[in-house]
Amino acid sequence: MPGKQAVKVGKKKEKQVTERKKLSSQERIKELQEEISKTKYNKRTQHAIGLMKAKLAMLKDRAQKRASVGKGKGDDRFSVRKTGDGTVVLLGFPSVGKSTLLNKITKAKSDTAAYSFTTLSAVPGLMQYKFAKIQIIDVPGIVSGAASGKGRGKEVMGMLRTADLILILVDALYPEHYRAILKEIYETDIRINENKPDVKITKREKGGITIGEMMMLTKIDRKTIADIAREMRLTNADIQIREDIDTNHLIDAISGDKIYTKALTILTKADLVDEEELKKLKGMIRPDVVVSAEKGEGIEELKEAIYQKMGFIRIFLKEVNKKPDMEEPLIMFKGCTIRDVCSKLHKDFISNFKYARLWGTSAKFDAQVIRKLDKVLSDKDILELHMR
């Protein structure tokens, strides 16, 4: 019995040590965040702020890894099989009107009510527009602190990482939620409406840090680049920079775990504010679309905005010795290749591909024979696939 008691005491002490480490880590994160916000950014403080941001990134990464240790399978309520030509996730605070909007633009039956947290799981719907079948997913409303797991935030924010587009819904009566939502998205390591920094990092066994620039850097200097790299445990590497980056871009590039996706900002419940207030909100938030889902206002504009932002193109397929099907195109993303088309049609199309004939702006001439799967296609191209 004394042995069992000693084991219990040992486990209790171990748990207390772990909790103290976790607390000190969170306190350090908070301290750094406050220090960064209080430090005025200029040429003199650029280096110090850069190092603080690098330390903060490392602390958050360690805290996230510790939090995920020992966690089992995710909640099935947040498991949605992707269908259609693209996936959109509706994101906003509770009672922003996500469920009502989902029901308006799809045939989904998401519960709606005049109180918070009506949606308790992920609810998918399908929007059909200009031949595109777009999956729209309504998820529970988030709260401040969602990125760190508050209010099932981990599950909700995690769904954004596989979305092709995020719809940020902001209630016209609570415009202050907009900045809070942007903060949660950023803290989830998602970068919206940004391109991935054009930085190539090659790790080496020795040789220290070497920096190659293909253009003049105006937002960061070479010493800051090298010191940030070392702070993030990158001691031997060749860093090639092909655009004018800042410290945030560099930290993201070194981390290598950021998701870059598209987003639209939607101002909801526009009918609940007067014209003067609405004009003020438009200037402050700069929404892509203004809607009143209850009254059905702005719905068609929203559908068009989603379609355009997704970056769809139309590919018309043609069977051998037949006319092309110009009635119903295959919907693909801009920048897609013949490989992508084959993959979408059937998994065997890639292994059995022989060549393709191509008509349209991507072809040098009509019926051009293309033998490479990596050929990039354009809107309204006509494609005839030949299999072995």
Descriptive report:
This protein has eleven helices and 15 strands. The chain is an alpha/beta fold and 388 residues long. The protein has four domains: 2-68; 76-194 and 259-310, Rossmann fold (3-Layer(aba) Sandwich), CATH 3.40.50.300; 199-255; 312-387, Ubiquitin-like (UB roll). The strands form three sheets. Strands 1, 2, 3, 4, 5, 9 and 10 form a seven-stranded mixed beta sheet that branches. Strands 12-11-15-13-14 form a five-stranded mixed beta sheet. Helix 2 (46-68) packs parallel to helix 6 and helix 6 runs parallel beside helix 7 (247-255). The protein starts with a helix and ends with a strand.
Structural descriptors:
five-stranded mixed sheet; 388 residues; 22% strand; 36% helix; 11 helices; alpha/beta; 4 domains; Rossmann fold; seven-stranded mixed sheet
Topology:
Blueprint lengths: L1 H37 L7 H23 L17 E6 L6 H8 L17 E7 L2 E7 L14 H8 L4 E7 L5 H11 L2 E3 L6 E5 L5 E5 L8 H10 L5 E5 L5 H9 L3 E10 L6 H11 L3 E2 L8 H12 L1 E6 L12 E4 L4 H8 L2 H4 L1 E7 L8 E3 L10 E7 L1
Parallel strand pairs: 1-3, 1-4, 4-9, 5-9, 7-8, 9-10, 11-15
Antiparallel strand pairs: 2-3, 6-8, 11-12, 13-14, 13-15
Helix pairs in contact: 1-2, 2-6, 2-7, 6-7
